[in-house]
Amino acid sequence: MAFDPEQLCSCRKRATIVERVFDVIIVGAGLSGVGAARQIRSNCPGIQFCILESRKTMGGTWDLFRYPGIRSDSDMYTMAYESKPWNRPKAIADGASILNYIKEAALEDAIDQDIYFDRRVTSAKWSSENCTWTLGVENSRKEAEEPFSCRVLYICSGYFNYETGHNPELQNQSQFSGQIIHPQFWPSDLDYGGKTITILGSGATAITLAPALAQNAKKVFLLQRSPSYILALPSFDPIGKFTNLILPKKLAHSLNRKRYISLQSFFYKRARKHPKQTKRFLLKLLRARLDSEYDIGKHFLPKYDPWDQRLCLAPDGDFFDAINSGKVKVITDEIETLTPEGIKLKSGPTFNTDIIITATGLKLKLLGGIEFYKDGDLIELSDTFSYKGLMFSNVPNLFSTMGYVNASWTLRSELASEFICRVLNKMKNLHTNEVVPTLKDSSRLKAEKFFGENFSPGYIMRDLNLFPKQADVDPWRFIQNYKIDRKSIRRRPLEDGVLRFKSTPR
Question: Do the Cβ atoms of 255 and 237 come closer than 8 Å?
Fold first, then answer.
């Protein structure tokens, strides 16, 4: 069955199309949004929902980013849905495979028939009188705004700004005669064969791009102000392949998933508890991969501890192989100015380049940039406290999903969807129409950074003011621990003295 992103559902009930009133509206048809819809359909019978997607097709990040080599930096056993086994050969998958997986998952449960494409949510207004969210939705096809309303609003749009990336201004940028490209907006017709390319940055995107571009480029320079930790892992998992061959698909997927969760947890905890030992271990692995005369301390030893920022992944050591081949050269320096032919470094040297790739990071946009109102008053989400990383203090019937920074995004997004399913069923059983995490006196809480004090990548720090606060006590924390979250979100009673279920006459 072919998927046509231009075709809206032809089998929705006519009344639904006219009224556009739902029990639940999900914003975003990416990995999180499709997964949420699958869980609601499976676990909440009778709940009427739809997905509003601002783009013309599903897939989110995995449809937006099209630069060479685009892939996951997490294993697919934990990045895939628990309910849909990942049985492909590679544990570290390319972007196209992940996009196809999302579309398959949507088609399996007919989720594609519940998506309104080209619908950008601009505002959400809560009425305490009606216990309803009324959304302002722009229809880019009709260049008009459409009314949608729901009891419960679930934001699954991630936190990246799709319209713009982080592009620091370069001195004399207009003088450069070549092309300057941000990976988020990769030209499909770009011919870089036989050309010299300079990648600015040292994060996951730069580490992905360098070996991919080196296959056809004349030379690739990776120009970084400071290095990142890079870990080489095999893209194929022989144990995973073996279990997929001998065991039923669901059982094999479950075992592989548990194995990777345990490995991730062990490595992260050890890195945080023993940062110096972990640093030495990573550098030992790196030296074994590099056969050049690189100054390891200068080019590959970050100033921060492991997992203060996410580790970069080099599947099968492709990044190091590209360096060893001579096609990729790492330069640790800063740009003084651009010249017509290339780049002048602050240390003095000038070198020529045909193309500059600004892999300098992303810009963030919390909850899709939607403006939220409660009974006519603007809600400043940055003034709220996060309830388990799922809801916002004193804001009713609003949920969001946020992935882990130290593990696969999907592990957290699936727990979030499980939680909302539990809440929906509880509301149905109690005959209530409002659920809100209540916080009467926030002054008694010690405010902390949303992602924790020790997580400090540039793209987060630039826009940290957008996020809600978290505290040092439950349930006002966003914990970076899947095993603890699994108990807290999946098993603990919903009525915890903070989450209140209310019945308001309608």
Answer: no
Question: Is residue 423 in some structural domain?
Answer: yes
Domain ranges, residue 355: 167-239+270-360
Rounded CA-CA distance 29/51 in Å is: 6
Contact 90, 236 (CB under 8 A): yes
Cα four-point dihedral sign 75, 79, 82, 84: negative
Query: Within a domain: residue 11?
Result: no
| Amino acid letter, residue 75 | D
Report the pLDDT averaged over residues 41-53. Answer: 96
Judgement on whether residues 150 and 221 belong to the same structural domain of the protein? no
Which DSSP symbol is given to 466? G
The total number of structural domains in the chain stands at: 2
CA 118 – CA 123 distance, rounded (Å): 15
Give the pTM.
Answer: 0.91
**What pLDDT does 462 receive?**
78
**CA distance readout (Å), 297 to 223, 302, 303, 410:** 16, 8, 10, 35
- Is 260 inside a domain boundary? no
pLDDT digits (tens, 9 = 90+) for 105-160: 999 989 999 999 999 999 999 999 999 999 999 998 777 778 899 999 999 998 88
The amino acid present at 57, given as its one-letter code, is T
Q: What is the CATH number of the domain that holds 394?
A: 3.50.50.60
Does residue 177 surpass a pLDDT of 90? Answer: yes
Q: Which pair of structure tokens corresponds to residue 259? A: 């194995």
Query: What distances in angstroms separate CA 410 from CA 17, 136, 261, one per listed residue?
Result: 31, 28, 12
Give strand ranges (E) for 11-89: 21-27, 49-52
Q: Quick one: 346 exposed, middle or buried, by C-beta within 10 A (0-12, 13-18, 19+)?
A: exposed
Report the C-alpha gap between 120 and 164 in whole angstroms: 16
Does residue 142 fall inside a structural domain?
Answer: yes
Model confidence at 452, in pLDDT bands (50, 70, 90)? low
* Secondary element (H or E) of residue 401: none
Per-residue pLDDT tens over the stretch 237-275:
999 989 989 999 999 999 999 999 999 999 999 999 999
